[in-house]
Write a structure and sequence with these properties.
heterodimer, A: six-stranded mixed beta sheet, 11 strands, B: 114 residues, mainly beta, four-stranded antiparallel beta sheet
């Protein structure tokens, strides 16, 4: 089977750093993507890791450890507009298919 | 550059009816994906089309079907609607299946089945 686990909710204050973890179990694996979805909106692509290590894009970074079947999204200098749901998604052995986690709802407080 | 568009934005149907949802991908994108997102839940993969062919489908019954046209736009058809089909249906596109890790989503069609 295929499964992804991520925390359902995370709360942090403005200006802080938050890490959203994702562990996965899939029959095949090509990479891990992260998406952001504001309430009622369309998901938007944030980052993709195919190889182990850290990828940085502005305030957001994403990490992957293939040996541990684990990744995380790191958000720095949190802003109120970062309040949203964040989904990890595995690109499995059938490269065209993304399997999404259930999402982590991030609440940023003033 | 225009984004992914979907129509209609909202739809109310009665149990047992049939519905067709439409999606136009970003210009130059050949792969189209359909997802179902029930309220407060994650995205469940429905269908993937590339170059007019169905490449993969998720764990949904055969009453969920679709197609992709020569201009790469796509339709999702749902027959014999059930109450649990009420959800946001999202369409996404990517340049090709090789770029599926970076999908661009449309605003979705909110389907309510009564």
């Amino acid at each position: 089977g295929q499964s992804l686990e991520q925390p359902s909710e995370v709360t942090a204050v403005e200006g802080a750093i938050v890490q959203i973890n994702c562990t996965y179990q899939t029959s095949g694996f090509y990479g891990l993507s992260w998406y952001q979805q504001h309430d009622g909106g369309a998901p938007t692509f944030l980052s993709y890791n195919a190889l182990d290590g850290l990828e940085e894009t502005g305030r957001f970074s994403s990490f992957l450890s293939r040996s541990d079947s684990y990744g995380y999204l790191l958000l720095q200098e949190l802003q109120m507009k970062d309040s949203a749901s964040y989904f990890c998604a595995v690109r499995d052995s059938n490269k065209g298919k993304l399997i999404f986690g259930q999402g982590t709802e991030l609440s940023v407080k003033p | 550059e225009a984004g992914v568009t979907q129509s209609p934005t909202h739809l109310i149907k009665t149990r047992g009816q049939q519905v067709t949802l439409r999606c136009s991908p970003i210009s130059g994108h050949t792969s189209v994906y359909w997802y179902q997102q029930a309220l407060g839940l994650g995205l469940q993969f429905l269908l993937w089309y590339d170059e007019g062919e169905e490449r993969n489908r998720g764990n949904f019954p055969p009453r969920f079907s679709g197609r992709q046209f020569p201009n790469y736009s796509s339709e999702l058809n749902v027959n014999a609607l059930e109450l649990e089909d009420s959800a946001l249906y999202l369409c996404a596109s990517s340049k090709r299946w090789g770029s599926s890790y970076e999908q661009y989503f449309g605003p979705g069609t909110r389907l309510t089945v009564t």
